[in-house]
Specification:
Number of helices: 4
Largest sheet: 2 strands, antiparallel
Helix content: 40-55%
Strand content: 5-15%
Structural class: mainly alpha
Distance between the termini: 18 Å
Order of helices and strands: HHHEEHEE
Strand order of the largest sheet: 1-2
Length: about 110
């Protein structure tokens, strides 16, 4: 199943352009965090989860904490969920001599 099909199922949204943009942005963020230029298969779930989180946050950008004492509702958003952060951390490339060294295979 493609990332786009996955997000369509998970969100119920048919806006292909929006979902593709969210996937692209999530992929770029994951690549930046890991120092990679190629997305390896092991990082695909993290891209999907980050794109889904971005979709769910639409309309509440910039909110870090919200609380409504009358109804007992409290909300807080992290920049990147801990589950994604932990999954991505193990695939970060080390810098040696000030540069990242990545194999050319997408493995």
């Amino acid at each position: 199943m493609s990332d786009l099909e996955y997000l369509k199922i998970m969100t119920g949204c048919d806006n292909t352009a929006l979902l593709a943009a969210l996937i692209e942005e999530a992929e770029l963020r994951i690549l930046a965090i890991t120092g990679r230029t190629l997305l390896i298969q092991a990082l695909v779930p993290a891209v999907r989860e980050l794109a889904l989180c971005a979709y769910n946050r639409m309309g509440s950008e910039g909110m870090s904490t919200r609380s409504d004492g009358e109804v007992g509702i409290s909300s807080a958003f992290e920049d990147i969920p801990k589950t994604v952060e932990q999954a991505v951390a193990r695939y970060r490339l080390a810098r040696v001599g000030g540069a990242y060294h990545e194999t050319t295979s997408a493995g």
